[in-house]
């Protein structure tokens, strides 16, 4: 298997070289003799461009970001798209306020975040706990808002082309590019909550771009931001011990990024993009499972201590070619390095996730290397106009986390090396893919695709896909798609030396503690998670009116569960006449299902096609989201979410918006993590609620723009009622009324 991986890696490099050379050869051939087939092809969009018209795709524009500026993390705005929620990675309720992007209920770990098409994986440097949660804010806060040109949110089958980790979908953050003229801007933003125990935000950023010479140009952006943590008193009504349930932790951002562009010829561009980011938290008292908390947690929260710091370094070299007649190419080499330094958090067997009293720090180091490329060319085959895309990708991921291997084993565990276990692990994967955008008949576009991935530990995976779009009338379009997607086990789940330990409460109810507790081990024999994603939708657009409805259905197989499943039973290790330890492994669950509806309704009220006053609406309705073998939810998400906005263009200088978001009932799991029946507050549901906001913007002159707004206008507040699943669905805080002001000066 390993030799096959190396052969595939070599093939990928060879394909990348061919992708770089092929356009030159094609161009040279075209200069010597005309190619009649290309001359007769009506140039269509590429497969990637066509997929971005799929029903499960949303685009957040630069104007959207300007008119609805998030306080710090763009997840605040992404969550308003159809099919999107903010959740934890399981229904455990742990780290409940560190919510991340969840697309169509598949969980944050199945959402692939990209920056300019390059995967962002810094959160993978954070240890995955027994519940399947990571103490992370996610990867949507590495680019300041003002440096973003647009955000593409791809859900369902359209995301299958991106490989492992995109089973739920893709969030692609596109940064602003160099400009023809020297230009720049400085933005300051401030948010002040009405309730002093909730955290405020201040940030400042700059952008500078322009030409250096005829052939060279650049773009530079930087950012300094601070969001304060919620005070310990926020959730004190629900305190059951020393430390109340934690509110939202704060974050301090420092970002700097530079892009240098060299126009080699009129057809070729070479870009070097490099950056450095530092994110430090401001501790709010969070811990994974301890309901009582500790004196250490209380002291650190009251101090506003920085208990974990992430350092991220990136570099990407990209060559793009435009060879005429619709032929384009891209080849890139990328590096991402993350150092995750944090106070040691208790491993299982003690207060898991709580900061250790000795306040010692450890650092995990994650490095990722990616080589990728693709070539697009129009062809005419079988009398049909087509645009063919071929591509390849090679990834290597290396992790060194010695602290994660420091959990002691009091017994000889099967497959676990004795002595000091290495914290190093790695994975390699290679992929090739082909897509074809075909105009079958006028109005009918079909986009078949096939991706082949080979992982050096988990073998081969095929990801076929088929998307289609048909214009029933000039205003009504029918769209649909189906695809197989997958996710390889992460470097914690697959490491056989990685273990947890519990003295009793974490043992399954069917296998109670026999005196020496229970262990759960990493498992090198896991299978990749797979899903078969289907969607069908209809869209109407005419003179500013717009409406759409999409049904999606995902069959989810082999989900890796960190619950101490009794699947296959444990390995029982006698330790005395009447005592024994029990060893379980992470396992693949049987099947899960996710299905629901997404839709939108856009109504022009004033002006040409709503240019003066427009009412836009989107909704998501979850029909099912559960593990079919246990009937437990995959994550805690609202039954429905409705986002509504009135956008009023009063004149060329002045605009105003009113927004509303309605959330449906949220239900928790009805089983404990050890498999028993949940009781009491652990079964509490979170009822439906709504949050409203208003804002207004004023273009003072060509150089100065001001905007002010009120979030949560009617001060609807929700509180976290426990530090884990004991809260039922009340696992996060909904902050109250807050006021913000932002100003941008540009030239």
Automatic annotation (TrEMBL):
Molecular-function annotations in GO: siderophore uptake transmembrane transporter activity; signaling receptor activity
Residue interval(s) of motif TonB C-terminal box: 730-747
Domain TonB-dependent receptor plug: 56-170
Region (Disordered): 662-681
Signal peptide (residue range): 1-28
InterPro entries, per database record: Beta-barrel_TonB, Beta-barrel_TonB_sf, PirA/FepA/PfeA, Plug_dom, Plug_dom_sf, TonB-dep_rcpt-like, TonB_rcpt_CS, TonB_sidphr_rcpt
Localization in the cell: Cell outer membrane
Matches recorded under Pfam families: Plug, TonB_dep_Rec_b-barrel
Domain of life, source organism: Bacteria
SUPFAM superfamilies (alphabetical): Porins (SSF56935)
Recorded topology in the membrane: Multi-pass membrane protein
BP GO annotations: siderophore transmembrane transport
Transmembrane segments: none
Primary location recorded for the protein, binned into one broad class: membrane
Cellular component GO terms, alphabetical: cell outer membrane
Gene3D superfamilies hit by this protein: TonB-dependent receptor, beta-barrel domain, TonB-dependent receptor, plug domain
Domain TonB-dependent receptor-like beta-barrel, first and last residues per copy: 265-713
Keyword RNA-binding set for record: no
Keywords: Cell outer membrane, Ion transport, Iron, Iron transport, Membrane, Receptor, Signal, TonB box, Transmembrane, Transmembrane beta strand, Transport
Similarity comment text for this entry: Belongs to the TonB-dependent receptor family.
PANTHER family per record: TONB-DEPENDENT OUTER MEMBRANE RECEPTOR (PTHR30069), TONB-DEPENDENT SIDEROPHORE RECEPTOR PROTEIN (PTHR30069:SF8)
Protein name: TonB-dependent siderophore receptor
Organism for this UniProt entry: Verticiella sediminum
């Amino acid at each position: 298997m390993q030799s096959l991986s190396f052969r595939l890696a070599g093939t990928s490099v060879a394909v990348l070289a061919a992708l770089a050379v092929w356009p030159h050869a094609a161009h040279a051939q075209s200069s010597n003799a005309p190619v009649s087939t290309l001359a007769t092809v009506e140039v269509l969009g590429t497969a990637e461009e066509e997929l971005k018209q799929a029903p499960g795709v949303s685009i957040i524009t630069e104007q959207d970001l300007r008119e609805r500026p998030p306080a710090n993390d763009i997840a605040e705005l992404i969550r308003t798209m159809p099919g999107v929620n903010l959740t934890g990675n399981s229904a455990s309720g742990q780290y409940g306020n560190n919510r991340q992007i969840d697309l169509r209920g598949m969980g944050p770990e199945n959402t692939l975040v990209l920056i300019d098409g390059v995967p962002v994986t810094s959160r993978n440097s954070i240890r995955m706990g027994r519940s399947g949660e990571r103490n992370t804010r996610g990867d949507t806060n590495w680019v300041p808002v003002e440096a973003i040109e647009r955000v593409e949110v791809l859900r369902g089958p359209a995301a299958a082309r991106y490989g492992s980790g995109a089973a739920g979908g893709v969030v692609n953050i596109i940064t602003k590019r160099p400009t023809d003229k020297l230009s720049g801007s400085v933005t300051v933003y401030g948010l002040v909550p009405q309730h002093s125990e909730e955290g405020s935000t201040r940030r400042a950023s700059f952008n500078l771009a322009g030409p250096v010479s005829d052939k060279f140009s650049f773009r530079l952006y930087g950012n300094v931001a601070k969001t304060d943590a919620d005070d310990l008193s926020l959730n004190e009504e629900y305190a059951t011990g020393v430390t109340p349930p934690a509110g939202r932790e704060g974050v301090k951002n420092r970002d700097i990024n530079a892009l240098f562009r060299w126009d080699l010829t009129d057809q070729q561009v070479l870009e070097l993009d490099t950056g450095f980011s530092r994110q430090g938290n401001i501790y709010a008292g969070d811990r994974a499972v301890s309901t009582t908390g500790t004196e250490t947690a209380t002291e650190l929260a009251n101090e506003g201590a920085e208990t974990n710091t992430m350092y991220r370094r990136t570099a990407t070299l990209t060559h793009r070619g435009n060879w005429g007649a619709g032929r384009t190419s891209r080849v890139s080499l990328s590096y991402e390095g993350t150092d995750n330094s944090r106070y040691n958090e208790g491993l299982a067997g003690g207060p898991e996730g709580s900061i250790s009293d000795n306040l010692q720090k450890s650092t995990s180091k994650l490095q990722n290397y990616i080589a990728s490329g693709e070539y697009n060319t129009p062809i005419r085959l079988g009398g049909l106009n087509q645009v063919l895309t071929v591509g390849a990708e090679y990834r290597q991921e290396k992790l060194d986390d010695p602290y994660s291997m420091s959990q002691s084993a009091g017994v000889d565990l099967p497959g676990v090396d004795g002595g000091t276990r290495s914290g190093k692990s790695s994975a390699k994967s290679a992929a090739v893919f082909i897509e074809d955008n075909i105009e079958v008949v006028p109005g009918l576009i079909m986009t078949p695709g096939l991706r082949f991935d080979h992982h050096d530990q988990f073998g081969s995976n095929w990801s076929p896909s088929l998307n289609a779009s048909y214009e029933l009338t000039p205003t009504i379009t029918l769209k649909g798609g189906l695809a197989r997607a997958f996710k390889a086990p992460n470097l914690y789940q697959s490491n056989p030396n990685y273990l947890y330990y519990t003295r009793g409460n974490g043992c399954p109810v069917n296998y109670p503690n026999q005196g020496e507790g229970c262990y759960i081990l990493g498992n090198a024999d896991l299978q990749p998670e797979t899903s078969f994603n289907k969607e069908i939708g209809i869209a109407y657009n005419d003179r500013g009116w717009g409406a759409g409805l999409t049904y999606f259905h995902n069959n989810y197989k082999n989900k890796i569960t960190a619950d101490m499943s009794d699947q296959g039973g444990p390995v029982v290790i006698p330790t005395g006449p009447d005592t024994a330890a029990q060893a379980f492994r992470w396992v693949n669950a049987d099947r899960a299902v996710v299905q629901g509806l997404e839709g939108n309704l856009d109504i022009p009220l004033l002006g040409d096609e709503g240019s003066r006053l427009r009412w836009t609406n989107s909704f998501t309705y979850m029909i099912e989201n559960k593990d079919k073998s246990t009937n437990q939810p995959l994550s805690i998400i609202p039954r429905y979410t409705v986002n509504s906005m009135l956008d009023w263009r009063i004149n060329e200088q002045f605009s105003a918006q009113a927004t509303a978001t309605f959330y449906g009932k949220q239900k928790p799991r009805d089983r404990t993590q050890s498999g028993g029946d949940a009781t009491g507050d652990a079964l509490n549901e979170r009822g439906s609620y709504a949050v409203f906001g208003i804002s207004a913007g004023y273009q003072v002159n060509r150089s100065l723009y001001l905007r002010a707004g009120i979030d949560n206008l009617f001060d609807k507040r929700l509180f976290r009622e426990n530090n884990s699943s004991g809260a039922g669905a009340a696992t996060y805080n909904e902050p109250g009324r807050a006021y913000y002001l932002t100003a941008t000066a540009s030239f």
